[in-house]
Amino acid sequence: MKVFQAMTPAVRIAHPNDTLQTAAQIMCECDFGFLPVGHNDRLVGMITDRDIAVRAVACGAQPFERVADFMTREVKYCYADDDLDDVMENMAQQKVRRLPVLNNAKRLVGAHSLSDAAHEYQPQIAGEALGRIATPGGKHTQSPAF
Hints:
Blueprint: H1 20-30, E1 34-39, E2 42-48, H2 49-56, E3 78-79, H3 84-94, E4 98-102, E5 108-113, H4 114-120, H5 123-133
Parallel strand pairs: 3-4
Antiparallel strand pairs: 1-2, 4-5
Helix pairs in contact: 3-5, 4-5
């Protein structure tokens, strides 16, 4: 099975200058836990509900502060025509629950999550990946610098 067969095709994008509140509202409207962040037709980062809670709110950030100041800049992604088994293995190794999905021209065409895999693919494989992702691995990159 290919990623495009299990992904969520409709994905909203945040802009680096959007506020945290705007990003959170989009996540709420769409029932997504993350948003790709784009600028000049390029992915420049990702903002997750965890980024907002742990990197921003836990450190005293205000709702009007910029997404760019709290997003993850290293964008991990997969391609729509990648084999889903390979992507699930990669997600487990990288300890990520969600990935933006790009076409061969590197344009955003969707998102793939463990939830997509559980609903559209094989729940057992999604569960195995989640088990490996959830294994404690030391200090998270999202940890605030208290």
